[in-house]
Amino acid sequence: MTSTSQAGDPDTKSVRVAVSLAAIPRSRGWFRSQTSRRLGFGYALLAPAALYVTLLVAVPFLFSLYLAVSDASVGEQMAGFVGLENFKAALEMDTFWIALRNSVVFFVAAAILKSILGTSLAFLLLQNFRGKKIVRALVVIPFTLPVAISVLGWKWMYDSQFSVFNWVLSRMGLIGAYGTDAWPVWLGDPRLALIACVLVNVWRTFPFSAIVLLAGFTSVPNEVLDAAKVDGCTFMQRFHHVVVPMIFPILMVGFLFDTVFTLSDLSVVYILTQGGPGNATQILPVLAYQIGIQAGNLGRGAAIALFLVPLLAPAMFVFLRNLKRREY
Amino acid sequence: MSTSALARPRTVRQKETRRYLLIYAAVTPFVLIAVFPIYWMAITAFKQDPDLYRMDNIPFWFNMAPTLKHFHTLFYQTNYGSWIVNTMTISVWVALITLLTAVPAGYALARLRLPGAENTGIGIFMSYLVPPIILFLPLSRVVAALGLQDSWWALVVVYPTFTIPFGTWLMMGFFKTVPMEMEEAARVDGCGFLGAFLRVVLPVSVPGVLTAVIFAFTLSMQDFLYGLAFVAPGDQKPVPVGVPTELIRGDVYYWGSLMGAALLVGLPVAILYNFFLDRFIQGITGGVGK
Predict the structure, then answer these.
(1) What angle do CA B213, A121, B19 make, to 5 degrees?
(2) What is the model's pLDDT at position B11?
């Protein structure tokens, strides 16, 4: 109470002065002081958030560039400059190339699956039917459940012996008995492990694709569609020339978010397989963690993590351009 | 004439029924895919061990009486209790920091006509898109320099790196929807800038502020990497990190306790998040304030 009224006081006074001098037109000085006061107040409000983001996101990001050209390790305080040594060393690692390939395969396969599932679900949720709200609330649970927690559930469903999938498949007579080659060991078989990880990512994120698409579809005003209809557009023409261009920005943003979170997520693979068996599910984020923290080689780890930047950059660029375009 | 008049409503209704049946038939697989893993986790948490590890029964329901034994194990033989306390304390601190920084910043960027406000806003939001996997190694040095390694305080410092950008962006959109006249009226009535913000704008913005707090809370729970990298002692971890790293020992899996531990915290978070999901989507697609 007191602090607010005190802070309000000087201002009250200035207004009163201005009123008492009402005969004289408000001088430029008064106006300028109002402006500078507003700006001062604005920057004061902005400062804490801006400082936090600068100190703990921007500076660390630059610091990671520095780490990547140094021989920093967890144990030592001092680090020397080693140039592009870390990047070179990464490129010479077989594991790095496996991780890069897996990251790309993981991302592309997951993107295809989730866009198919997401689009069909979005079209279904566009319909009107009883119980739609409940259906929607149930369908988005995979996205809202904390990652580490739902992945644990999947780890249990992929259990080598008591997998519920295998129970169903074996009752249907599709797979052989436990212990034979015809019994799939989801996380232990190099041919299946990456697919198993991709499925978890798809399960987790297809509701997000659907909801983003749905937000896009519902943002198209009916009048626009009606106008197109009056002008003699067929359904496909309306879809192609009206709906798609209008929802494109939203689609891109959704795509960007998914790209960032799918490519940089380590929890699914780390909890399910830790990159194994062999290196069958090794991806860049897991490799960066293993080398940077577990092996203590900060420089090398940072270099590997930075290889994600070129993969992320196109998405960021598109996002920024869209935001800018929308202002006008 | 009379037959067609009778038949017509029936065919319309039949059409309608068929439409509904088709929709439900199409929706059911999606619901099953989405919900089954959670159902499976839940039923696992209450099954007795012999019931879990028998393949000759139908596993989708209880073949033996349900039990609370797994939860008993969780609370009396593991650090689960302290993980819950850690998670709650971390989230409250993070929500508080977000509240005190993101709400004023959002207001300043949306309402005070600062030069370059729009770009600053986008800049802050872009930092939300710098993934933790790029920041965790440099931040580990920051955490060590602050002397916070191996304590959950490290996470209180680090989580705002994603809650502040998101919160600021969200509040920016929200404050744009508050009518400008309200502040002008307050200013004419003799309020200062701070007074107008605290006494006039904030009280009508409670729903927006609440949303930002809820997100600070739920986004904190979504983290795994920072907790994994910065907090090693068993009793300092938050739930999403403690459960997968501490409850799995070697090759021995206590699936009942694991699933119970995961859902007991995960499900309330998921439900809370569910209510605010539309705001989240609006927030990231830039649709707020439109």
Answers:
(1) 125
(2) 80
**Chain B residues whose beta carbon lies within 8 Å of the beta carbon of residue A8:** 190-192, 194-195
Residues B116 and B24 in one domain: no
For residue B251, being part of any structural domain is answered with yes
What b/e readout covers B27-54, taking b as 16+ CB neighbours within 10 angstroms? beebbebbeebbebbbbbbbbbeebbee
The answer on B265 and B154 residing in a single domain is yes
CB A196 within 8 A of CB A189: no
The partner residue sitting opposite B124, judged by closest CB among A53, A264, A289, is: A53
DSSP states of B104-171: HHHHHHHHS--TTHHHHHHHHHHGGGS-HHHHHHHHHHHHHHTT-TTSTHHHHHHTHHHHHHHHHHHH
Kindly list the distances between the CA atom of residue B52 and the CA atoms of A169, B75, B260, in Å, as whole numbers in the listed order.
18, 21, 14
Rounded Cα distance between B135 and B142, Å, is: 10
Distance CA B121, CA B117 (A): 6
Q: Which B positions 88-107 lie with beta carbon below 8 A of chain A?
A: 97, 100-102, 104-105, 107
> What CA–CA distance (Å, rounded) separates A167 from B59?
8
Cβ of A63 within 8 Å of Cβ of B118? The answer is no
Helix (H) or strand (E) holding A144: helix A141-144
- The domain tally of chain B equals 2
Partnered with residue A70 across adjacent β-strands are: A81
- B240 contacts A148? CB cut-off 8 A: yes
pLDDT (tens digit per residue) in A231-243: 888 888 887 888 8
The pair phi, psi for residue A186, each rounded to 5°, is -55, -45
What one-letter code names the amino acid at A209? Answer: S
Side chain identity at A85, as an amino acid letter?
A: E
Residue-range definition of the domain harbouring residue B173: 81-285
Q: Which residues contact B275 (CB under 8 A, 6 or more apart)?
A: none
Residue A189 CB neighbours (<10 A) = 16
Residue B290, in any domain of the structure: no
Token code pair at residue B274? 């569910």
Q: For A76, phi and psi rounded to 5 degrees?
A: -100, 145
CA–CA dist A132, B27 (Å, integer): 10
Lookup result for tokens 């999947």:
A154
Q: How many residues does chain A have?
A: 328
Dist. CA A109–CA B251, nearest whole Å:
30
According to the model, what pLDDT value does residue A48 have? 92
Predicted confidence at residue B8, as pLDDT, reads: 54
For chain B, which residues score pLDDT lower than 50? 1-2, 5, 287-290
